[in-house]
Design a protein that fits this description.
The longest helix is centred in the middle third of the chain and has 26 residues, at 87-112. Strands 2-1-3-4 form a four-stranded mixed beta sheet, covered by helices on one side. It is 55% helix and 8% strand. The protein has helices at 13-23, 42-47, 66-76, 87-112, 121-145, 158-172, 181-191, 194-201; strands spanning 3-7, 28-31, 55-58, 61-64. It is globular, with a radius of gyration of 17 Å. With 204 residues, it is α+β, with helices and mostly antiparallel strands. The protein has two domains: 3-81 and 196-201, Glutaredoxin; 87-193, Glutathione S-transferase Yfyf (Class Pi), Chain A, domain 2 (Up-down Bundle). Helix 1 runs parallel beside helix 3, helix 1 (13-23) packs antiparallel against helix 6 (158-172) and helix 4 runs parallel beside helix 6 (158-172). It contains eight helices and four strands.
C-alpha cells in the first residue's frame, strides 16, 4: 500500500502525521509551505482542489479532512488503537474530532486571518476578541471533559494528537490559556510523546 501525506509544518496536518506514526504505517511526507502559498499552486490544486492540508493519498486515491483521515488510518491499522474499540466510545472520539475541526479551529482562523473575513480594519479587533472569547467557551467544555485525565480515553488516541494541535496553535496565536489547567496538562503530556516530537521536528 502506497501512502502519501501532504503536510504543512505548524498546520493541523500534524495530527494525521502523528497518527500515521502511531499506526506504524510506511508513508511518504510531502511538505507544503503555507507561508509561500504552495497550497494555491496549480501543481498542488491538481492533487487537492480544496487547496489545504492535510491531504492523504492512498494507492492513488485522495482523502481530505482530519476526522475522515484519522478514521481511515484507524480502520487500516486497527491494532494501533487510534480510536476506541467500543462502538459508542469510537463514535464519541469521532464526535470530538469533528468538534475540534468545526467548533474550535475556525475561531483560531478568524483570529489570525481576520482580514479574510472582514476588510474593515476598524472592525477587525472586535472580530479577534469575539473569536478568542468563543474559543475560550469551547475550551471550558474540553476542560470539563479532561477533568482528572491527560487523555480523552484510557489510552492515547487520535483525539489527543488533534487537540494537542488545537491547543498549540492557540498558544502560538497568543491566546491566554492559563485558566485551563486540565487542557494544559494534556498538552504537556502529549508533547512528550516521541511520535509527536518526531512530527513537530519535520520542517524541511
Amino acid at each position: 500500500m502506497s501512502i502519501t501525506l501532504y503536510h504543512a509544518p505548524g498546520a493541523c496536518s500534524v495530527a494525521a502525521y502523528v497518527s500515521l506514526l502511531d499506526a506504524g504505517a510506511a508513508f511518504e511526507v510531502v511538505l507544503i509551505s503555507l507561508a509561500k502559498k504552495e497550497q494555491t499552486t496549480e501543481s498542488y490544486k491538481a492533487v487537492n482542489p480544496k487547496q489545504k492540508v492535510p491531504y492523504l493519498v492512498v494507492d492513488g486515491k485522495g482523502l481530505s479532512e482530519n476526522p475522515a483521515i484519522q478514521t481511515w488510518i484507524d480502520s487500516a491499522y486497527p491494532e494501533a488503537g487510534l480510536l476506541p474499540k467500543d462502538p459508542f466510545d469510537r463514535a464519541r472520539a469521532i464526535s470530538h474530532m469533528n468538534w475540534f475541526s468545526s467548533g474550535m479551529h475556525p475561531h483560531i482562523t478568524r483570529h489570525f486571518r481576520t482580514a479574510k473575513f472582514c476588510e474593515i480594519e476598524s472592525a477587525q479587533d472586535d472580530i479577534k476578541a469575539k473569536a478568542q472569547a468563543m474559543f475560550h467557551e469551547q475550551m471550558a467544555l474540553v476542560e470539563q471533559e479532561l477533568d482528572g485525565r491527560t487523555m480523552f480515553f484510557n489510552h492515547p488516541t487520535a483525539c489527543d494528537s488533534y487537540f494537542f494541535w488545537v491547543y498549540d496553535r492557540a498558544l502560538r496565536e497568543g491566546f491566554d490559556l492559563s485558566g485551563f489547567g486540565n487542557c494544559t496538562a494534556h498538552y504537556e503530556s502529549t508533547k512528550e510523546r516521541p511520535n509527536v516530537q518526531k512530527a513537530l521536528a519535520h520542517t524541511q
